[in-house]
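Lecture 7 notes: from sequence to structure.
We start with the chain below.
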Amino acid sequence: MTDGNDPKNPFKGNSDKSSADGELTPLERYLAKQKAQSGSEEASSSSKASNHEMNDEGVEYGAPPIPPAAASTESARRTLGGPPAEGLAVTLVAAGFWVRWLAFVIDTIIVGSIAGVLSFGLGFALFFLPFPEPISLLSRLVVIYFYYGWFYSEKGASPGKMLLGLRIVETGTHRNLNYTRAFLRESVGKFISGAILLIGFLIAGFREDKRALHDLIFESRVVKWPS
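Predicted structure tokens for the same chain:
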């Protein structure tokens, strides 16, 4: 003979008894609230607070907890140190003039070294041509295209910028630059910036957004990337 309680389901006996008395047990009240909440289509702050209260109440009466909502893609990216989601409005701090100049020097040394090796590897034509400069210039342009194109599009920064915690992004969208924009910025853009007494470079030190002339022409920004 039993008292109406099922040892495998501790809530069954209480539920039968309370139903006979015309009352709901705490667990039944919790389940009723949860069912009503799931049918609601509004997602407001008040409903979120209600969910938390219901979760706590359910756990207290033996129900399994409601799993927390999964983190958003943007939160996951920021946690992992990756770039913000495309098109997201975030506040980025412009990189200063001197740290940008140091990154430029580092990249120039790397590019010059690679271009020198490439020029030498093109063969002994350098010794037979009366004007070897075209081969040297071509080698440098090829290196600039692939060096900045790959690093800017895939990593968001050149090695010099990465060493100093900088990133280069498109103005407004914060997306990485593609190969074409990266190449034109580093070749044509910087040539224009340096053509008139380096004024195109120097204006970055006086502008609030720290953008140089080649940044303005090709819609780019150099920023301190959030960790």
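Points to note: DSSP finds eleven helices and three strands in the chain. The CA atoms of residues 94 and 223 lie 4 Å apart.
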